[in-house]
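ugh ok fine here u go
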Amino acid sequence: MVEKKDREKKQILLRLSQSLYNDIAKWAEDDFRSINAQIEYLLTQAVRKHYKKDNDG
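structure:
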């Protein structure tokens, strides 16, 4: 079950180069996600990988 705190969203300003934005937009389209959802997905995966690496070593 998703906890209430996980459903609440924090808004942030994010500045990206035009080329990075374009790459993420294309990737999001390929994955049938919005650009915002794609960025959130990628950040979530990076955080999980970071903590998994810390726990493995």
